Every structure is written in structure tokens, then in C-alpha cells.
């Protein structure tokens, strides 16, 4: 059991913010099946800070919504610590990855990782990303109803393999794709949420055994890439993230060894591909179900502007953020929103709920990209990439991918509904469309590029 879970305080109503009385299994099921709806009902009942008694927490997950509580959890690093809180993900991403690294190590570690993800560096990949999107388009433009998320997962994984890992050989990318698809399959990662004894390796057919075998396959492939990149004669000229990280040094001249790189790359791929694919799927699905917003966006893009493009991606990230919440742990006994929070409790900045706060976002359930065209939003009212010292380092890459996909698709096709609007489901911390974000892409009769 990870340290964070071992020291988590047990549930006692007077120690935590208020919680529903429903059994833990019921609260867990409601959260998985309707993450925004259930959280909203608890907020109506208890206010912006409440406890969720769900698995796998022994005590409770303290949830914070609203700009003030969101800001406190994301930025008051003395009270709410990152790293430990991601302990749940450590068996998947690797305990040495940035996501799982607690302070004070986190700061130096992040400094090494940030430069290759800087916006200007990522912009150099624009053409390559566009080529990858274009080569994937036939799989989507079938004229039939199609689930966007699986399509986008393949694309975003290919992009990460190219941009981050520097994989250039198609057969290697295919091997990675197969290994990762099996590893991140919902059933496999659900192991992380099982009670501890069931996570153990009880033979190849047990969930724990299967998890370890699939993880080993991904890590073996990653190890091979690290070795190949270290040995590459053209390393100095390569601009993939891995090649840059091999030469990264901190102020004491220390770099990342292979074990750290292995955890780091596993963390980057797991943090980066499903989240971006889910964002792409939600955005196209929402556009299909909001024809006025969709037509305005197409007209704006045809006119050579990207104002509405950025506003549309912001609105999709507000209404259906791919990551439901960011996690921290309480560094000491403290309070939040006037409620007690015990030391070592898990605390979640529930931005999926903050994004639906009617005081911050009038008519919060409406999909209205134009709301992002005016003044900047209230600080910490919109945080799809988290915030503070642990804000997502992949923002520029994710935005480049999402914007390129929308640009390329909307130049040739119009997304239309392929069924009713989909509800959200929670898988780990990712909030996915229940049917994969189905749309039908109708070919455009005329467009400027034709
Ligand atoms: C639309 C796509 C994405 C979304 C919505 C997203 C969202 C997030 C969120 C909410 C966090 C937690 C922030 C916090 O705790 O305050 C995070 C962290 C992180 N993300 Fe992303 N992410 C996306 C894409 C990516 C990509 C493409 C990469 C890299 C390839 C990436 C790498 C990371 C890493 C390494 C962290 C940990 C940062 C740290 O702990 O210092 N993400 N992301």
C-alpha cells in the first residue's frame, strides 16, 4: 500500500466536511456514472466544500468547488501538497514520474522537464502534427456515425510517440500502440481502485497479474527507446522531447538517469494521450449537437480567424473537462470553506463542478463559445489544466493537437449528431463521453480549400 493511503485518516463525521449518508458503494457508482450531476447535487445540499465517501478512499475525498476553494487547493502549497495525492496512479505511471513526485523534489524535477514543452518549441511540430492528423482523417470521414474518442486516442498516441519519444519507425509505433491500448484499457486500470489484496499478483489471469504483465510490456518498449535515443548518432540534431531530456541538466549538472526517464516517459504518455483524445472527442460531439456554434466556428475559420477556435476549445474544456479534478493531500490539520480537513486527507479541486458554477458562468449548461471572447474569466473559475506549481506541462501540445484536428476536420466536413447527446462517465480522473463522443461527419460541398 502506498504511504499516502496508509496514513490517510479514517472517516469520522466531525473531522471532515459534510457527506451524504449513502453507502460507499452507492456514492462510488453515482460518481462513476454521473460525475458532474452527482457532485452538483452534493454541492446544492452541502455548499462548495463537501466530502465524498467513495472507493478507494478509507476516509473520504474532500471536494472543493467555486473559485475561492479551487484557488486554495491548487495554489496554497503549504496546506495542500501535490505528488502524494497521485499515489493511486503510481503503479501505472511510475512512482518517479513528475505527477507522483512530492515537494521539495518536484520543483527541480519540473524545471528539467518544462523546456521541451515550451510553447515556442512545441510550435515547431505544427507541420508534423498536421500531417499526422491528415493521414488519420479517412478513418473518421466515413459518412457514418463514428465514435471520435478511439480514433483520437490513436492519433494523440501517435503524436506523443513522435514528438515526445521520437519514434520514427511505423512498426515501433504500432507495437507501442498495441501495448498501451491493452495497458490503459478501462478494465485493466480499474485494478488501481480495487482493495489492496486484490491488486496483488495472484497469477497471470488475476487482475493484478495481468496489470503487471501489460505494464512490463509498455516499460520494456520504453526502455528500448531510451537506449536507442542514447545511442543515436544524430542525437544532437534531434528535437524530440526524449532526446532533449537526455541532455537536460540541473544547476548542479545532474541529469535524469534511465530509471527516472522510464517513469517520466510513462507518466507523460499516460497523462497526455487519453486526456487530449477525450478533449477532441467532447469538442466535436458538442459542436455536432450545437449547430449554431458549429456554423459560426466554420465561418470564422473560413475567414482565416482562430478567435472562435480557441473560444470553442475553452468552452468545451469548461463544460466537459477531460480531467474531472486535481488531487492534493492536506499537509496538516486545516480548514476549507469553514469545514475541518484532517492532516493527510485527500483533497480534490473539483473544477468540473467549479466550471458549472452559475455565479461564475451564467447559464452554465449552455455551450456558448462566445462567452470566452470578452474579458478574462474570474481567476480560478476555469482550470481544465489544473493550476499552481503543478499545472499541466503539456498545455501547448494539447492545444496544438486539438486546434489542428478541428481546423483540418472543419475544412472538409460538418459534424452532425449520430445519436442523442452523450452523458459523462468517470474513468479514474478522466471524464469521458459514455459512447465515445459519436458524431457523423458530413462532407462539405464547398469550402475555401476545395
Ligand atoms: C487536453 C489535454 C490535457 C488535459 C485536459 C490535461 C490536464 C491536466 C491536469 C488537470 C493536470 C493536473 C494539474 C494539477 O494537479 O494542478 C495535469 C498534469 C500534468 N499533465 Fe496534463 N493534460 C493534458 C495533456 C497533457 C499532455 C499532452 C501532456 C504531455 C505529453 C501532459 C502532461 C502532464 C504532466 C507531466 C502533468 C503533471 C504536472 C506536475 O505534476 O507538475 N498533459 N494535466
UniProtKB/TrEMBL annotation:
Recorded coiled-coil stretches: none
Keyword rRNA-binding annotated: no
Record InterPro entries: Cyt_P450, Cyt_P450_CS, Cyt_P450_E_grp-I, Cyt_P450_sf, Cytochrome_P450_monoxygenase
Cofactor(s) this protein requires: heme
A GO MF term: monooxygenase activity
UniProt entry keywords in alphabetical sequence: Heme, Iron, Metal-binding, Monooxygenase, Oxidoreductase
Family according to the record: Belongs to the cytochrome P450 family.
Stated name of the protein: Cytochrome P450 monooxygenase
Organism for this UniProt entry: Streptomyces kronopolitis
Amino acid at each position: 500500500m502506498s504511504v499516502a493511503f496508509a496514513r490517510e485518516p479514517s472517516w469520522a463525521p466531525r473531522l471532515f466536511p459534510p457527506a451524504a449518508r449513502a453507502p460507499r458503494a452507492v456514492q462510488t457508482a453515482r460518481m462513476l456514472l454521473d460525475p458532474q450531476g452527482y457532485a452538483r447535487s452534493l454541492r446544492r445540499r452541502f455548499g462548495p466544500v463537501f466530502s465524498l465517501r467513495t472507493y478507494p478512499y478509507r476516509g473520504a475525498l474532500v471536494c472543493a468547488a467555486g473559485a475561492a476553494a479551487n484557488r486554495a487547493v491548487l495554489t496554497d502549497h503549504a496546506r495542500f501538497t501535490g505528488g502524494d495525492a497521485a499515489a493511486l496512479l503510481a503503479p501505472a505511471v511510475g512512482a518517479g514520474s513528475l505527477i507522483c513526485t512530492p515537494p521539495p523534489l518536484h520543483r527541480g524535477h519540473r524545471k528539467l522537464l518544462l523546456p521541451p514543452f515550451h510553447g515556442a518549441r512545441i510550435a515547431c511540430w505544427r507541420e508534423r502534427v498536421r500531417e499526422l492528423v491528415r493521414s488519420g482523417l479517412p478513418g473518421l470521414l466515413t459518412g457514418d456515425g463514428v465514435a471520435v474518442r478511439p480514433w483520437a486516442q490513436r492519433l494523440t498516441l501517435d503524436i506523443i510517440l513522435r514528438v515526445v519519444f521520437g519514434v520514427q519507425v511505423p512498426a515501433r509505433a504500432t507495437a507501442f500502440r498495441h501495448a498501451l491500448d491493452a495497458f490503459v484499457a478501462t478494465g485493466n486500470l480499474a485494478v488501481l481502485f480495487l482493495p489492496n489484496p486484490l491488486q496483488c499478483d495472484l497469477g497471470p489471469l488475476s487482475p493484478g497479474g495481468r496489470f503487471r504483465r501489460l505494464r512490463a510490456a509498455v516499460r520494456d518498449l520504453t526502455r528500448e527507446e531510451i537506449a536507442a535515443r542514447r545511442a543515436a548518432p544524430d542525437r544532437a540534431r534531434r528535437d524530440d522531447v526524449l532526446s532533449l531530456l537526455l541532455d537536460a541538466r540541473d544547476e548542479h549538472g545532474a541529469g535524469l538517469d534511465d530509471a527516472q526517464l522510464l517513469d517520466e516517459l510513462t507518466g507523460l504518455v499516460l497523462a497526455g494521450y487519453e486526456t487530449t483524445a477525450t478533449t477532441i472527442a467532447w469538442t466535436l460531439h458538442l459542436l455536432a449537437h450545437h449547430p449554431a456554434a458549429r456554423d459560426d466556428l466554420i465561418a470564422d475559420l473560413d475567414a482565416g480567424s482562430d478567435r472562435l477556435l480557441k473560444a470553442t476549445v475553452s468552452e468545451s474544456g469548461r463544460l466537459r473537462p477531460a480531467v474531472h479534478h486535481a488531487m492534493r493531500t492536506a499537509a496538516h490539520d486545516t480548514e476549507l470553506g469553514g469545514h475541518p480537513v484532517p492532516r493527510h486527507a485527500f483533497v480534490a479541486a473539483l473544477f468540473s463542478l467549479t466550471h458549472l458554477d452559475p455565479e461564475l458562468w451564467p447559464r452554465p449548461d449552455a455551450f456558448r463559445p462566445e462567452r470566452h471572447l470578452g474579458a478574462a474569466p474570474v481567476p480560478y473559475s476555469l482550470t481544465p489544466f489544473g493550476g499552481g506549481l503543478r499545472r499541466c506541462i503539456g498545455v501547448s501540445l494539447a492545444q496544438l493537437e486539438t486546434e489542428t484536428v478541428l481546423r483540418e476536420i472543419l475544412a472538409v466536413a460538418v459534424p452532425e449528431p449520430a445519436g442523442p447527446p452523450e452523458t459523462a462517465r468517470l474513468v479514474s480522473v478522466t471524464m469521458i463521453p459514455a459512447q465515445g463522443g459519436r458524431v457523423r461527419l458530413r462532407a462539405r460541398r464547398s469550402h475555401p480549400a476545395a
